[in-house]
Amino acid sequence: DADVTQTPxxxxxxxxxxxxxxxxxxxxxxxxxxxxxxxxxxxxLIYYSFDVKxxxxxxxxxxxxxxxxxxxxxxxxxxxAIPNQTALYFCxxxxxxxxxxxxFGEGSRLTVL
Amino acid sequence: xxxxxQPTEMTATEGAIVQINCTYQTSGFNGLxxxxxxxxxxxxxxxxNVLDGLEEKGRFSSxxxxxxxxxxxxxxxxxxxxxxxxxxxxxxxxxNRLAFxxxxxxxxxx
Lengths: 113, 110
Prior knowledge:
The complex is a heterodimer. By secondary structure, chain A is an all-beta fold. Chain A is 0% helix and 53% strand. In chain A, strands 2, 4, 5, 6, 9, 10 and 11 form a 7-stranded mixed beta sheet that branches. In chain A, a hairpin with a 3-residue loop joins strand 4 and strand 5. The N and C termini of chain A lie far apart (32 Å). By secondary structure, chain B is mainly β. At the A-B interface, strand 5 and strand 10 of A face strand 4, strand 5, strand 9 and strand 10 of B.
């Protein structure tokens, strides 16, 4: 079983719909992240959380929100999806401290029509 | 802010050596990381450098020069399974998070 699990893995939706992507981890890590990946643009950070009470904006947080319900769960919401939010979304975790060793989920491919 | 630059694509022959370069500009540098990403899959951690010099890990080595803002990943004895995108990422104290370059696609041919 994967240590970092994302659901759904694939989703097609329409403009204006609310979408939630969920991430859960069994690694016991404090830190969790949401990235999106677009061809030619690489991985860009949307939001990150260093513990249950901590939420931080990344480079491209507009149009997104997150919730850290527990140490093991970090969900990403698109309140009103738009076509340019079509992308591959990755959740990742890391240990506390200054570490760039991230453990990624398998990704959620979102298509907004 | 951070500026991370990598070439976009290269082709190499099975058994050969390939060097993937990465240049960066950042304040409060605290480590450079390399990830491998196969098509349609998640990135996986390969190596990291905090101090200047070469770190060797089997067929893969990574080099860092902090004064030049430069790193490279060296892949030796290339295998077909090494065909992937290689992502360079920088951790800086100021941002306290990892910023990725756009990745370099390596295609290994027989």
